[in-house]
Amino acid sequence: MKINSLKKKSSRISEGFLYTDQYQLTMAQVYFRMGMHEHQVQFDHFFRDYPDYGVHKAGYCINAGLEWLVDWMRNVRFTDTDYLHLKKMTGGAGNPLFHTDFLDWLKKFGNYEMIELQSIPEGRVIHPHESLNVVRGPLAQSQILETALLNMLNYQILIATKASRIREAGCRQLMLEFGVRRGHDRGANAGARAALIGGADFTSNAGISFELGFPPKGTHAHSLVQLFLTLGYTEEEAFQAFADVFPDDCILLVDTIDTLNSGVPNAIRVFEKLKKKGHRPVGIRLDSGDLAYLAIRSAKQLNDAGFKDVKIVLSNELDEMNIWQILKQIREEAGGYGLDSDSLIKRLVYGVGTRLITSVGDPALGGVYKLTAVRKNGVWEPSIKISESAEKIPHPGQKNVWRLYDNRGKATADLIGYRDEDLSRMESIELWHPYDPEKKRTLKTDEISASESLLVPVLFQGNIVYDFPSIEAIRFVRDEDIQRLDSGVKRLINPHVYHVSLTHRLMTIKQDLLREIQHA
Amino acid sequence: MKINSLKKKSSRISEGFLYTDQYQLTMAQVYFRMGMHEHQVQFDHFFRDYPDYGVHKAGYCINAGLEWLVDWMRNVRFTDTDYLHLKKMTGGAGNPLFHTDFLDWLKKFGNYEMIELQSIPEGRVIHPHESLNVVRGPLAQSQILETALLNMLNYQILIATKASRIREAGCRQLMLEFGVRRGHDRGANAGARAALIGGADFTSNAGISFELGFPPKGTHAHSLVQLFLTLGYTEEEAFQAFADVFPDDCILLVDTIDTLNSGVPNAIRVFEKLKKKGHRPVGIRLDSGDLAYLAIRSAKQLNDAGFKDVKIVLSNELDEMNIWQILKQIREEAGGYGLDSDSLIKRLVYGVGTRLITSVGDPALGGVYKLTAVRKNGVWEPSIKISESAEKIPHPGQKNVWRLYDNRGKATADLIGYRDEDLSRMESIELWHPYDPEKKRTLKTDEISASESLLVPVLFQGNIVYDFPSIEAIRFVRDEDIQRLDSGVKRLINPHVYHVSLTHRLMTIKQDLLREIQHA
Question: pTM of the entire structure?
Answer without folding.
Answer: 0.96
